[in-house]
Amino acid sequence: DDDDDDDGTQASCLWPRLIAGEVEHVKSLGDPQGLLRPGVEQRKAGPEDYFRRLIAYLEPYSGRPICTPALLTLRNFVSDLSSGLIEYKSCRKARACRMRGNEFFKAKDYETAAHHYQRGLLCAQRAFPVRAEDEEPSLTRGGFSKKAAEAEEAALLHGNLSAVYFHRAKWTECAWSACLALQLHEAAPAGTTVIRRLVARLQRACSHLGYSLPDPPKASDLRSLHRWIRECVEESRSVVAEELLQPDGCGVFGEVCIPEPRYGRNPALYAISSGLQVQSSPEQGRFVVARNAFVAGDVLASEPAGGWSTTGRMKADAQAAACCLLLPFQRHLSCSACHSRLTSIGFVCPHCTDAAFCGPPSACFRQHLHPNGQFIVPEWHKAECRPLHILPCIRPLSVEA
User: Fold this and answer.
1) In whole angstroms, how far apart are CA 293 and each of 264, 368, 390?
2) pLDDT value, residue 95
C-alpha cells in the first residue's frame, strides 16, 4: 500500500506538547469545568457530560475563549493535516518529487529538475547517512525493510542531483552528491546499472578535482572522499552563490531585497529616511517630522525582520539573514542558516520539511560541522522545528468593536 511509507507521526509529535501545555493552563484556572477530575468521577458522569463541559471550555457562553490560542489553532492544524496542507516526511512525496524532476531532466531543464530533487530530499525520511551509534530503534512494522526503502529513495534523489551537477560542470557538488548516493546504496550489488553510473560519474568528478579515487571504490574509500570534500576543498572556492537580481531602489541584505528609503537612511535611526526626524514632547509623545519633500509612493522606512543589530558583532546583512523566515516555496531553494541560494544540499532537518542547509563548497557548511564530521542543526531551528508545522494553520480572529 502506497500509504504505508507515510509517517504521519512526524507531524503529530507536536500534539502531546500542546496538550500538556493546555493541561497546565487548565490547572492554573482552577479547572472550573472539571476537565481534569479523576477518571472514576468522569465515568460516572458519562461521556456526554464531559463533552458538554469540554465545549463550554472551548466555546463559553461569553463568547471569549478561555483556552489557550494554541488549542484553537490545533483544530485548524488537525483539519489541515487531514486535507494535506501540512507537510511531513514521506517516501511517497519524495518519490513524486523525484519523478517530477526526472521529467525536467529529460527536457534538459536541469535547474528546475534540481529544485524538485532538492524538494524531494526535504520530504525524504532518511535523506542522509546515519552513523550506527546515532540510529534510532524502529518502532514500526517491518522496520528494517522500511529503512532500506527510505534510504534507497534518498539515494536515488542524491544520485539524480549528482547527474544535474555533472551536466552543469559543478564538480564538487557532483562528487558530494554521488558519494552520498553510494553510501546510502550500501546494500545494492556493485554490478547494478545505478551503481555503475554513480561510480563512473564520481570518478569523472574526482578527476576534475584532482582527487585519486580507487576503481571500484570501497566503503572506506567513500568515507575518505566524504571527509576530503568536507575539509580539503580550498577556501578560495568556499563561497559559491548565484547572482541575485537587485531591483532599482533596493538594498540586498543576505538574500533579502529591502526597499531603500527616499533620501537614503537616517544615521540616527537606520530604518527611516534621512529626510525624516524623530522628535518628542511631553504633550504629544514621540512623532516623526519631515525635513524634506515627499510624494505619494516614496519609501519612508524599511527594515529586515527582527530589526538591525546594535551590538556591532554582526553586520547588517548577516543580521537580516539571521532574522528572516523562509517562506514555504523558498525552503528547498535557500539555506535556512545563511539564506544563500543552495548550490548543493549539505544536510536537511531529519524531523521536518522546512530546513535545508548549504553543502560544499560553502563556508556556511563548514561552520555547522562538528569535528567528528556530523552536521549540527542550528539550535534556533531545533526550537522552532515542531511549532513551525502549525504556522500555516493560524487563522485571523474576528474582533468585535
Assistant:
1) 13, 48, 45
2) 93
Q: In the chain, which residues have pLDDT < 50?
A: 1-5, 8-12, 132-134, 137-143, 233-248, 252-255, 312, 393-401
Q: At 92, which amino acid appears?
A: R
Domain ranges within the chain, ordered by starting residue: 2-83, 107-237, 261-301
pLDDT in tens, 102-120: 999 999 999 999 999 999 9
Per residue, what are the HEC states of the chain?
Answer: CHHHHECCHHHHCHHHHHHHHHHHHHHHHCCCCCCCCCHHHHHHHCHHHHHHHHHHHHCCCCCCCCCCHHHHHHHHHHHHHHHCCCCCCEHHHHHHHHHHHHHHHHCCCHHHHHHHHHHHHHHCCCCCCCCHHHCCCCCCCCHHHHHHHHHHHHHHHHHHHHHHHHHCCCHHHHHHHHHHHHHHCCCCCCCCHHHHHHHHHHHHHHHHHCCCCCCCCCHHHHHHHHHHHHHHCCHHHCECCCCCCCCCCEEEECCEEEECCCCCECCCCCCEECCEEEEEECCCEEEEEECCCCCCCCCCECCCCCCCCCCCCCCHHHHHHHHCCCCHHHCCCECCCCCCECCCEEEECCCCCCCEEECCCEHHHHHCECCCCCECCCHHHHHHCCHHHHHHHCCCCCCCC
Indicate the pTM of the whole model. Answer: 0.60
Query: What is the distance in angstroms between the CA of the first residue and the CA of the last residue of the chain?
Result: 52
Q: Identify the pLDDT of residue 100.
A: 95
**Per-residue model confidence (pLDDT) at position 174:** 92
CB count in 10 Å sphere of residue 70: 17
Angle, alpha carbons 244-248-251 (nearest 5°): 60
Neighbours of 87 (CB within 10 A): 20
Q: Rg of the chain over CA atoms, in angstroms? A: 26
